[in-house]
Amino acid sequence: MTQKNSPLLAELNLLLADYQVFYQKLRTYHWTVTGPHFLALHAQFEAMYTDVALKADAVAERVLMLGGRPVTTLAEALRLARLKEDGEPRAAEAMIRHVLGDLESLAKVQRALSGKAGELGDQSTVNLLDGFVDEQEKTAWMLRATIAV
Ligand SMILES: [Fe+2]
User: Fold this and answer.
1) How far is the CA of 29 from the centre of ligand 1 (A)?
2) What is the reported pLDDT for 1?
3) Cα–ligand 1 centroid distance for 59 (angstroms)
4) Number of alpha carbons in the 13 Å side-chain half-sphere of residue 51
5) Section 127-142 average pLDDT
6) How far apart (Å, rounded) are the C-alpha atoms in residues 115 and 82?
């Protein structure tokens, strides 16, 4: 059920801000990764930022459906996001570890937010967020396998 002025709006916008920052980090890694796994990681980071763009769009549209206003500017996203930008030169393995950490943070906030949505009877938000977590668990497994952790 869609609820106008849902109490979930603020946290959905925080998640949207996280996704905006994550998107830019993945683009950075796509551009700057080097080493023996270049081809695989260059493609993997591109697949991930393409997926993150779709997820950000879905979150923004959920905010609108719930009667809110999504975060639109990069400045606002940077102010709100809990994930951090990364412009440092990094080895491929360090990039993967950063991405795994971000996926873990996203899983935590999305599971918590899904729980709140469930309590409010907002099944569409539950489905959206649970779907994200399921997909990202598989991505995390593949990344962990790449560096054998
Ligand atoms: Fe590219």
Assistant:
1) 10
2) 46
3) 24
4) 14
5) 97
6) 19
Best CA proximity match to 33, nearest among 41, 22, 25 = 41
- Cα(99) to centroid of ligand 1, in Å? 18
Residue pair 142/43 in contact (Cβ under 8 Å)? The answer is: no
For residues 131 and 22, is the Cβ–Cβ distance under 8 A?
no
Q: What is the DSSP letter of 55?
A: H
Query: Rounded to the nearest whole angstrom, what is the distance from the C-alpha of residue 30 to the centroid of ligand 1?
Result: 7
Q: Which two tokens stand for residue 49?
A: 């930022």
Band of residue 3 on the pLDDT scale cut at 50, 70, 90: low
3-state SS track over 89-123: CCCHHHHHHHHHHHHHHHHHHHHHHHHHHHHCCCH
